[in-house]
Amino acid sequence: MSDSAFGVYVHIPFCAQRCDYCAFVTYTDAEDLEQRYVDAVITELGRATGTGTPPATSAFFGGGTPSHLPIEMLVEILGALDLAPSAEVTVEMNPEDVSADRLEAMVAAGVTRVSIGIQSTASHVLASLGRTHRGEAVRDLCAVVAASGLETWSMDLIAGAAGETDDDLLTTLVDVLDHDDAPPHVSAYLLTVERGTPLSRDTSRHPDEEVLAHRYELLDAELAGRGYGWYEVSNWARPGHDCQHNQLYWDGGDYLGVGAAAHGHRSGLRSWNVANLTAYLEAIESGGTAQAGCEVVAGEQRTFESVALRLRTRRGVPTSWIEPPLDLEGLLELEDDRWVLTLRGRLLADAVLARLVVSSGAVEASR
Ligand code: SF4
What we know:
It is a single chain. The radius of gyration is 21 Å and the shape is globular. The chain is an alpha/beta fold. It is built from 13 helices and 15 strands. The protein has 2 domains: 6-248, TIM Barrel, CATH 3.20.20.70; 299-358, no CATH class. Iron/sulfur cluster is lined by residues 15, 18-19, 22, 24, 26, 63-65, 94. Residues 15, 18-19, 22, 24, 26, 63-65, 94 line the site of iron/sulfur cluster.
């Protein structure tokens, strides 16, 4: 990460329909509030710019579904960003929102990267996840994105849904990757059960740990075999296509969070906005701040977080930061002066981190 790297995260809390596994802050019945929300986000961005915030080297529109916003509104927010030259600007999209016209408008407004949540191309897997889009048109969708002029882009997958087989996952990878218009970046997540979601209440759809581990190994082997290298536990890319904005997070860098529920981090101070849409609008419109809280991330907590974030990346953790105990053999390997998770270690990343903490002072001063 360069010293001048600075990110902006913009949260767009609107979706067409809530997926069964989703615990994000998002609304499916608030379209009448979208223009007010866009105005509030622009106001919040403007206030930050007035307080010495540097131009952003990366911006990321997440949600929710940023592509659910009418394109003119998305373009309005893009126009309010203070971007550094060659900034990476990513917008998350749902497949049903992808069209040549929309992508053309986004590219013209400064978007350099899209991340499309395809999840799977098997209709019964999508149904099991509570997704409403269809998977079979993925190659056409890839062709539209490839023709848009975007320099790079990603597809998001989810593995481990109830009813998914190895063949479903392998077929999804063939559909997404085995053609000339394949995305150069893939994010692939193992299904997790979040509290309060429809999925959490339906135990018959809960994923099996062994199946998840097996699917992860399949994913990694299939992606590696096609030239996609892992650079974070859930992210693979062809050379030169890593997401700079996410790298900023993993490096513990500084970024501004704008919108309901958005988090920011500046020089060891983490802050977060109110998560409720109406409360956010009222706070900004009344001239106040939407900030709900903040905390100083320093000392042992900062060290722990730095190790936790770096551990999940291909860059690994410098040997000067940790001294892994012997029982982590096979889960971490030494590469030059860094400890890097092995494939098995990636499957057990949380347990590896917990073991490092317990065996500490193993997690020692890092910066
Ligand atoms: S589209 Fe994304 S943010 Fe919206 S409900 Fe589904 S998983 Fe959640």
